Amino acid sequence: MKIALKRIDDGFNMEAVDEQGHKVLMDSSVENGGKNNGVRPMQMLIMGLGGCSAIDVVMILKKQRQEITDFRIEIEADREQGKEPSLWEKAHIVFYLSGNIDADKASRAVELSMNKYCSVAETLRQAKTQLTWEIKLNS
């Protein structure tokens, strides 16, 4: 993997581009001297957790011939207070799945993602982040 990052203003606004040309804007908060023109790098890590797990769960359920009509994730995460660097202390993921999906298969798909396949989850776990989750099926 190769990522190119460049500063695009006189503050902290950065543009990251991957090998395929996909772009992401990052910035700092106004309180920290940024202009709030992009995602904070630590937020991006939590977004990556959601994306990584979402791909796993959808892939597993599709292989099991489950019909997914809607899928979304919400994540609440807290960082350590009063520390530098301030790591993620805990993250709680809520998986919202709709469709003709067996509850046991949904539960197993999420379990496999969070404990076996999702590299971002394991990266956070190695950093001592407490990961919890729940599934809301057809709600």
TrEMBL record:
Pfam families xref list: OsmC
Domain of life, per UniProt, equals Bacteria
InterPro entries registered for this protein in UniProt:
KH_dom-like_a/b, OsmC/Ohr_fam, OsmC/Ohrsf
The record's annotation in SUPFAM superfamilies points to: OsmC-like
Q: What is this protein called?
A: Osmotically inducible protein C
* Source organism per UniProt: Chitinophaga cymbidii
